[in-house]
Design a protein that fits this description.
- The complex is a heterodimer of chains A (177) and B (221).
- Chain A has 1 helix and 12 strands, in the order αββββββββββββ.
- Chain A has one helix at 2-20; strands spanning 27-29, 34-38, 43-51, 56-58, 71-75, 80-86, 91-95, 98-106, 109-118, 125-135, 137-138, 147-158.
- In chain A, the strands form 3 sheets. Chain A has a 4-stranded antiparallel β-sheet. A 4-stranded mixed β-sheet of chain A has the order 2-12-10-5, with no helix packed on it.
- The longest helix of chain A has 19 residues, at 2-20.
- The N and C termini of chain A lie far apart (59 Å).
- Chain B is α/β, with parallel strands linked by helices and 221 residues long.
- Classes of the chains: A mainly beta (177), B alpha/beta (221).
């Protein structure tokens, strides 16, 4: 039941995007929600993308140097660093236009995981991280010029939990029992 | 029961069962009013999603019928827009330079895999129909630079002129929403056919013959 509910939820998230799609290729991102992260510690954000049916885009590591890889570029606010971006492995597929070649592509749904690291100095609160996904799509008969999908996600920066020894913070550091 | 289990059950069923009931994994299926309510909610959601998707498809198809999604460029019978583009040799080449010949003007890019499939066909057609007046011209719509395009063309054994494309030229030829896009131009500079996407070699050859047979200097005229 829970899996069914998750599937329906995902369809709901993407369905308004599907309405906006035209005849060309498109990659859309599901709303990412607000990801809680602790100040001074790295946190992980998953960004869910969907390639329109009938199209594919190159993976982050396409099999040819001429092909344009899918790349996520982020422009985080000050005091929030972006660390590693983990791309999924693509699928090696052959197409009618290149039956002897295997192209490493994304199609359907795929997720990119981003590590964000709020610095110790950042003021707790909600922050927008903006960026874009650069991709180049093809179908069985044609390829489309590279496109940039603007995107953003939110992180809620919280203070780190108080340490156990702070119970005695009233005690002067100069007094030793 | 742990707090986390309580939390999970709260999320899934909306209420917390008594402490002494069976765990969620071994509990018998619920057939009460909550189950009926959940089923009704799911049915409503599925119907709503289906309606939105069907509505979206209708809007897309309506756009296609109205021509909002179709590709542009000079139509058959129109004069092909002239251009001045740099070749890989560094020369400036105009389309008008080929007046009197039938031109297969092919827009391509190094990142376009379907374009690669056509290139050996163009090489063969250039050899076969060149003596009759065919001129294949490739226009690379790349941002990757002259050296990359030159290496790619050499690797593909291209025997016809390759020009470095510009966005302004692409706009004059309909925006080039996708590649490959080819225009078959007769000896008078008029478009005979415009073709979007990969087609078969025999189709391409037919359009080449048609371009060669049109225009004031066509064989037999």
């Amino acid at each position: 039941m829970r899996r069914l509910a998750q599937t329906i939820l995902l369809a709901l998230l993407f369905s308004p995007l599907a309405l906006a799609q035209g005849a060309g290729p498109s990659v859309e991102m599901a709303p990412a929600g607000i990801t809680p992260v602790v100040r001074g510690k790295p946190g992980s954000v998953e960004l869910d993308f969907r390639v329109k049916q009938g199209f594919h885009i190159n993976s982050n590591h396409p099999n040819s140097p001429y092909l344009i890889p899918t790349i996520l570029k982020l422009d985080p606010p000050t005091d929030i660093a972006v660390g590693a971006v983990d791309y999924p492995a693509g699928r090696n597929l052959s197409f009618a236009f290149a039956p002897d070649e295997k192209l490493n592509v994304y199609s359907g749904d795929f997720a990119v995981r981003v590590t964000v690291h709020p610095l110790h100095t950042v003021i707790p609160g909600k922050y927008n991280v903006r960026g874009q996904l650069r991709y180049q799509a093809c179908d069985d008969r044609a390829c489309y010029p590279p496109r940039n999908l603007p995107l953003y996600f939110e992180v809620q920066v919280k203070k780190a939990a108080a340490r156990a020894h702070t119970r005695h913070s009233r005690q002067s550091p100069h007094i030793h029992n | 029961m742990s707090d986390s289990m309580h939390e999970q059950l709260k999320q899934s069923d909306g209420q917390v069962p008594p402490e002494d009931t069976q765990s969620a994994e071994t509990a018998p299926p619920a057939y009460g009013p909550h189950a009926r309510r959940n089923a009704a909610v799911i049915i409503v959601v599925v119907v709503a999603v289906a309606a939105m998707l069907i509505g979206g498809q209708y809007l897309v198809h309506r756009g296609e019928r109205s021509g909002a999604v179709t590709a542009g460029g000079p139509k058959p019978g129109a004069t092909a827009p002239d251009f001045a583009l740099q070749s890989l040799n560094g020369n400036t080449v105009h389309l008008a330079d080929f007046r009197g010949k039938a031109v297969l003007l092919n827009f391509w890019a190094t990142w376009c895999e379907p374009c690669k499939l056509e290139m050996p066909w163009f090489v063969e057609l250039e050899k076969q129909y060149g003596p009759q007046g065919l001129q294949v011209v490739g226009v690379a719509m790349d941002d990757s630079g002259k050296d990359t395009v030159a290496k790619f063309a050499k690797d593909m054994g291209v025997n016809y002129p390759v020009l470095l494309g510009k966005e302004s030229v692409g706009d004059e030829y309909g925006g080039l929403e996708y590649l490959p896009t080819s225009f078959y131009i007769d000896r008078d500079g008029k478009v005979v056919a415009r073709v979007f996407g990969l087609r078969s070699r025999s189709d391409i050859e037919d359009w080449v013959k048609e371009a060669l047979s049109h225009g004031s200097n066509a064989a037999g005229n």
